[in-house]
Amino acid sequence: MSYQYEIFLSYRRSPTVGLWVKNHLHPKLQARIDEISPIPIRISLDTDMQSGSAWPDELKLRLRSSAILLTVWSADYFRSDWCMAEWRSFRQREAVLGFSTPQNPKGLVYPVRYADGDHFHNDAKTTLCKFDFSELNYPEEEFRHTQKYLEFDDRVQKLAGDLLPLILAAPDWQQDFPIVEPGPMAPVHMPRTVI
């Protein structure tokens, strides 16, 4: 078996982030990366899963059979057990393969910023998000008809150009790539405000 997907798109399926990924990021990235790639690029998006499938099992299968992880980071991404499991699965894969070390800085996780940044997971705060979409994160379809959409398209073209070399240099697929099960996270303790 080989990879079934070149990119696993990991994001919080919220009314804003989910719509933005579905309406804008996914279709534009698919079009832009297909323009420059010597091979067909398959992007795993959870909305493409067949209804009635065993969703958790299908998601884990897609995760294991994807070459790289593209994460769309917002504060609520890190409050999702499933998003964290996806991210941690690829981080464990990097550890197994000896990636993301000072000796081998190459990685398999490519984060982009959707919003915030101040309330990311501590490990994420030290990770460079090369592309910041926080000023171009309009989820509504009407966004396509605005001047800012041209800037969004420019940024996605550059993102596609960054992702392609990672995909083409991805390590061989292994059936025992680790998968982290989703589970409860430690609660975030916020200081109490006295009014």
Describe the structure.
With 195 residues, the protein is α/β, with parallel strands linked by helices. The protein has a single domain (5-168), classed as Toll/interleukin-1 receptor homology (TIR) domain (Rossmann fold, 3-Layer(aba) Sandwich), CATH 3.40.50. The protein has helices spanning 17-36, 55-64, 81-97, 122-125, 148-168, and strands at residues 5-10, 43-44, 66-73, 109-113, 131-132. The chain has a 5-stranded parallel beta sheet with strand order 2-1-3-4-5. It is globular.
Shape: globular
| Main beta-sheet strand count, sense and barrel state | 5 strands, parallel
Strand elements, count: 5
CATH superfamily membership: Toll/interleukin-1 receptor homology (TIR) domain
N/C terminus separation: 60 Å
Label the CATH architecture.
3-Layer(aba) Sandwich
Order of helices and strands: EHEHEHEHEH
Pick out the low-confidence regions: 185-195
What is this structure's SSE topology?
Layout (H helix, E strand, L loop, with lengths): L4 E6 L6 H20 L6 E2 L10 H10 L1 E8 L7 H17 L11 E5 L8 H4 L5 E2 L15 H21 L27
Parallel strand pairs: 1-2, 1-3, 3-4, 4-5
Concise overview:
By secondary structure, the chain is of the alpha/beta class. It has helices spanning 17-36, 55-64, 81-97, 122-125, 148-168, and strands at 5-10, 43-44, 66-73, 109-113, 131-132.
Keywords, separated by commas or semicolons:
195 residues; alpha/beta; Rossmann fold; five-stranded parallel sheet; 5 helices; disordered C terminus
